[in-house]
């Protein structure tokens, strides 16, 4: 029979597979911790050694999701993981990149321009759900089906 894993070993196992925020790592380790102090000690050590970094997690998360979601949704998801808005600001897509993502997502979901108000509202709701701001949504709806296809590819 194997001896039980230490909290430190469990944390290393988790972090060796993927980047995890401090809040996420704490949530995963909490059921195995003897006390809150022990858990905080391990979390502090890992952060101090830079084995766990909220900035690195934010960068990886944004890099993997920014081709499908808008800035608002990315910020909200990171906030739920305990990531400070300042830690993720530098990794968020700029306005032009976000617009291109909105157009790409819109074209993929809806194959043609909205023919009536009901269809346009459906497209607006879809983009809003994906976390795009109102100005980005309006610009995307106006330019998504322009003749100049190469600009947005």
Automatic annotation (TrEMBL):
GO terms for biological process: regulation of DNA repair. The keyword Coiled coil does not apply. It is found in: Cytoplasm. It comes from the Bacteria. Residues 96-141 form the RecX third three-helical domain. Gene3D superfamilies: Winged helix-like DNA-binding domain superfamily/Winged helix DNA-binding domain. The keyword Cytoplasm applies. Residues 53-90 form the RecX second three-helical domain. GO terms for cellular component: cytoplasm. It holds the Pfam family RecX_HTH2. Keywords: Cytoplasm. HAMAP family: RecX (MF_01114). Modulates RecA activity. Belongs to the RecX family. This is Regulatory protein RecX. It comes from Neisseria flavescens NRL30031/H210. The lineage of its organism: Bacteria, Pseudomonadati, Pseudomonadota, Betaproteobacteria, Neisseriales.
């Amino acid at each position: 029979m194997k001896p039980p894993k230490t909290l430190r070993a469990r944390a290393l196992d988790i972090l060796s597979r993927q980047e995890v925020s401090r809040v996420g790592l704490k949530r995963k380790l909490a059921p195995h911790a003897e006390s809150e102090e022990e858990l905080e000690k391990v979390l502090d050590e890992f952060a101090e050694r830079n084995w766990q970094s909220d900035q690195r997690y934010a960068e990886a998360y944004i890099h993997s999701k920014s081709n499908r979601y808008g800035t608002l949704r990315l910020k909200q998801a990171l906030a739920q993981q305990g990531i400070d808005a300042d830690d993720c600001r530098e990794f968020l897509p700029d306005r032009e990149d976000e617009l291109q993502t909105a157009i790409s997502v819109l074209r993929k979901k809806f194959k043609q321009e909205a023919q009536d108000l009901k269809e346009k509202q459906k497209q607006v709701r879809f983009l809003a759900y994906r976390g795009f701001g109102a100005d980005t949504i309006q610009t995307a709806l106006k330019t998504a089906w322009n003749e100049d296809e190469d600009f947005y590819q």
